[in-house]
Amino acid sequence: MNGMRLVLVGLMAAALLGCEREAVVEKELEEQGLQAAGGGRKDWTGPRGGLAMQGRVNEAVPKNVGEAWTFTADAGIIAPAAIANGVVFVGSVWGTLFALDAKTGEKMWSFEAEDTIEAAPTVSEGKVFVGSNYGTLHALDVKTGKEVWHITIADKVSAAVNIVKSPDGTEDWILMNGYDGVARCLRVKDGSQVWEFSTDEYLNGSPAVVGGKYVVFGGCDAVIYTLNLADGKMVNELVTEAYITASVATYGEMVYVGNHANQVMGANVLKEDLVWVYEDSEFPFFSAPAVTEESVFIGGRDKHLHAIDRKTGKGRWKVKTGGRVDSSPIAFDDAVVFGSTDGRLYAVSPKDGSEVWTLDLGEGLMAAPVYAEGMIVVGGGGDTVFGVSSR
After folding, report:
1. Average pLDDT, the chain
2. Which of 326, 262, 331, 338 is nearest to 294 (CA)?
3. Which of 3, 51, 214, 329 is the most exposed place for a label (fewest CB within 10 A)?
4. Bridge partners of 305?
5. Number of helices (H) and strands (E), helices first, in the chain?
6. How many Å apart are CA 386 and CA 376, to the nearest integer?
């Protein structure tokens, strides 16, 4: 079984730019489920922590950390978890979604999907939404794990969905990208379709929402798309040099993402030309970025975490690990936390990359860490889910 698990794991804007940024930051804090006025993060319910997909945690990183609990799953974990109302939701490459007590790691329920779960779960309106490589998006009751509805598409669902209010405020919508190359908007209540938009290649990253008006994502056709949220019609397309497999991050009207031409790009979602391109490696970027006011942080297959000046695209520093950094970082006020396939969870200073702490978990980390209520949760490539907190 362990050998099979290892095999499975192995297969596996213009105006805003001028007047930066208090109103925008407050809006993005709200979109990420944060309390802007001094409160800590209570939940991590969607991909990269919120609609802006910044991977941002507006509080101090836990110090003197250790394993608070571990849970042994049925196979390796390559997808990030979600945390909502004291429950961790995490899927395995064997296709099982587990609901765990966030304080103890004890199993509450599980649900068997038809195939590998590469996509992080998303929690909203009493449901947890999770896609599988069978091509199915499941909507499950958050308390029991019972299926409420599902839809099936022509190829796998390898990207987490995002949940957004309809522009008129009357409905909750699901934004879903499929490996069939189609971006879809569905109704939370029953999965019925609002609109769809077809691209020329696979879609492997989650869609972000900018300003409550635009849906932004990259595709394997090397294009960064900006769609109108209301009707799915294209507003802008920005052609890059190579296919994009990771999720984007946004800050105001800016979008940031890596590609397979070994580049990290910064662009305005409404303009046809890149603002900047960062190149420092002969290896592609599979990690999604984390973004703060000052920096873009992204992991590379060159075994480094890269820190890039958000406004200029100039490299600030980089930190070497013992393995690939496909694990997307999350940015606290005083540390950037990320995993490596060398089995270690790292926390480094956002200023200069100096070590804050390192925790050896003993399993290659491909999944991104997530955080809520003092607990960092990350899945390992063996079969372990780790809850990490201050001792």
Report:
1. 91
2. 331
3. 3
4. 299, 319
5. 3, 32
6. 8
Residue with token string 């691209």: 199
CA atoms within 13 A on the CB side of 277: 13
Tokens representing residue 38 in the block: 């001094």
Domain hosting 194: range is: 2-390
> What is the pLDDT, as a whole number, of residue 40?
81
How many domains are contained in the chain? Answer: 1
Closest CA to 353 of 382, 322, 381, 319: 319
Here the CATH number for the domain that contains residue 339 is 2.130.10.10
Tokens 């309390």 locate to: 35
The length of the chain in residues reads 391
Cα 106 to Cα 130, 163, 227, 265, 365, distances in angstroms: 20, 27, 41, 41, 21
- Residue by residue, DSSP assigns 320-373 as E-SS---SPPEE-SS-EEEE-TTSEEEEE-TTT--EEEEEE-SS---SPPEEET
- Distances from the Cα of 150 to the Cαs of 121, 224, 361, in angstroms? 14, 28, 35
CA distance 281 to 300: 8
At 52-90, the pLDDT tens digits run: 999 999 999 999 999 999 999 999 999 999 999 999 999
Distance CA 355, CA 385 (A): 24
CA of residue 26 relative to chain centroid, distance: 20
